[in-house]
Amino acid sequence: MPDQDVLARMRAAHPAGAALLDRHRTKADLALALRSLRKSKGMTAADVRRASADLGRPLTPGMASGLESPIAALPDLNQIVRYAAACGAQVELSFVIGNTDGDGACRVILS
């Protein structure tokens, strides 16, 4: 899986950064999923910003960058939906209760 390759390379190159990613696992997973979605559509970050503006729901450069940053603050759902729409995708949100690590989980599916 390409996203896992990126993560493995980041871990090898920057062990301290890997520890930071571990502390921000949920955000890192979301950022990699959004980046993967954009790339699967053959879009650049600028394309996403333009498409979001064309839809009347513009993402600022900082917002778009933050969505793909594995250590930025978790975005609100509205920003995720706007980003996905700009990429021609929809967001499906589900909750997983009672998983084995005791933390519960939230899974975001971009399609």
Task: Describe, in plain words, how this protein is organized in 3D.
Helix content is 58%, strand content 11%. It has six helices and two strands, in the order H-H-H-H-H-H-E-E. A hairpin with an 8-residue loop joins strand 1 (91-96) and strand 2. The longest helix has 16 residues, at 25-40. 19% of the residues are buried.
SSE topology:
Layout: H1 2-13, H2 15-23, H3 25-40, H4 45-54, H5 61-67, H6 77-86, E1 91-96, E2 105-110
Antiparallel strand pairs: 1-2
Helix pairs in contact: 1-2, 4-6
Spatial shape: globular
With helices defined by DSSP (H or I, 4 residues minimum), what is the helix count?
6
- Nearest-integer average pLDDT: 83
Q: Specify the structural class.
A: mainly alpha
Distance between the termini: 17 Å
Q: Unreliable runs, pLDDT <50, ≥5 residues?
A: none
Order of helices and strands: HHHHHHEE
Give the helix level as a range of percent.
55-70%
Tell me about the largest β-sheet.
2 strands, antiparallel
Short description:
This protein is mainly alpha-helical and 111 residues long.
Characteristic key phrases:
111 residues, mainly alpha, two-stranded antiparallel ribbon, 6 helices, 11% strand, globular
